[in-house]
Write a structure and sequence with these properties.
5-stranded antiparallel β-sheet, elongated, Beta-Lactamase
């Protein structure tokens, strides 16, 4: 599978999840993000105004009572804005109202207890309010997505590539080499796929292992693919 094919597959899957969340929960907007910092890092979204995320990151995200960091620390899987703030006005609820939203939901998807992906669903003022049926549907979707989305090969590959870059500082070429290792490619196969010499592949591997702090291919894959909350939030 080429990198472009993997990217397209991941994008299609994420778009499908956004549509599923909006239709099933009768909501106007949804966002999917990596849980790799307190406010999360959006990777796909629909239904938001262009100024929403800059405003959220710069000023209002730290006040979000159902921000992913707070939800994870409480050990919750799903949280609802109005249920959390008990209808008491706050700067954050005013920010949401100004953005066109009356309520919101945060959903956490974990890989063996390690938070990996967050999903936010926003209810516009003319959307049906959250009710017992909404919470029942959300619980069912959360269980389904935790099995399906996290272990989707294209999503998993994007997740690994992000960790290689942001956490460990691997170069684009080093990330390509390590990703091909994850596919089971030998050094000769990697050299052919990337159009480089086998000796260059070996050099990239040695540098990658040094940055990852491992001494073998199998150790690198275990470290990258096994859940580790500290690595996720590094």
């Amino acid at each position: 599978m080429t990198d472009m094919t993997a990217h397209d597959s991941a994008t299609d899957r994420l778009t499908g999840v956004l549509d599923l969340m909006r239709q099933s929960l009768k909501a106007s907007a949804a966002v999917i993000y990596w849980i790799d910092r307190p406010l999360g890092t959006p990777i796909a979204h629909r239904g938001f105004r262009g100024d929403f995320f800059p405003g959220y990151d710069a000023e209002h995200g730290w006040e979000d009572p159902i921000g992913v960091d707070r939800v994870v620390k409480r050990g919750s899987r799903i949280a609802y804005l109005k249920q959390t703030v008990n209808h008491v006005a706050s700067r954050y609820t005013r920010f949401m109202e100004d953005a066109g939203f009356s309520d919101a939901m945060t959903m956490v998807l974990s890989d063996a207890d390690a938070p990996m992906i967050g999903i936010g669903v926003m209810k516009a003022h003319d959307d049906p309010p959250v009710d017992p049926e909404t919470t029942h549907v959300a619980d069912a979707i959360q269980t389904y997505l935790e099995r399906d989305l996290i272990y989707n090969p294209a999503i998993r590959r994007r997740y690994v590539d992000r960790k290689l870059s942001h956490r460990f500082g691997l170069s684009p070429r080093e990330r390509e080499v390590v990703t091909l290792i994850a596919d089971g490619a030998a050094n000769h196969d990697i050299a052919v796929a990337l159009g480089i010499a086998p000796a260059t592949v070996k050099t990239h591997l040695m540098r990658s292992f040094d940055k990852l702090g491992v001494g073998s291919r199998s150790a690198a894959m275990r470290m990258l693919l096994e859940p580790n909350p500290d690595v996720l939030r590094g």
